[in-house]
Specification:
By secondary structure, the chain is an alpha/beta fold. The protein has a single domain, classed as Rossmann fold, CATH 3.40.50. It has eight helices and seven strands, in the order H-E-H-H-E-H-H-E-E-H-E-H-E-H-E. Helix 8 links the parallel strand 6 and strand 7. The chain is globular, with a radius of gyration of 15 Å.
Length: 186
Amino acid sequence: MATLCGRCLRHTPAYDATITAFDYAAPVDQLLLQLKFGARLALAPLFAQLLHAAIEQQSRWDAPQLLCPVPLGPARLAQRGYNQALEIARPLARLLDVHLQPRLALRVRETRAQSSVTPQERQANLAHAFAIAPQHVALLQGCHVGIVDDVMSSGHTVNALAAACKRAGAAKVSILVVARTPLRQR
């Protein structure tokens, strides 16, 4: 049976479930940094397989109808040259046999990297940062969306995107992340 942390009980998140493969700790943290900042794209399929294995271990797994990677802003995408969440989502969609919608969500406002702001600033940093592409709103009506990302620390990024999905009509949002910062470090 799933349990909620005290923070989630006080402030109900917009998403309905979270599945993660690892704590964000050594050696996974270093491998994720190599993917994210070192262009080690060959790591993405491995992370997708490991996340898929974690999903398969869930006894009451309700597969989403589509996957949506957390989008990067245009400036960060141009700087990096790729979106690590999309690189993980592509093979994960194939493994789950779920349709991938890489352009479902848009980052409509450039934000500072969450790692560069204080925990108290993170929610404000992401205010109004995401929108659902108008041509895809109909896809979300009553849909179960799986949001894919590499790392979840405070949860503000995925929560902001989940809220945008729910406002556009999604019935359920599940977060699928490779690694999550342990509660004591958030």
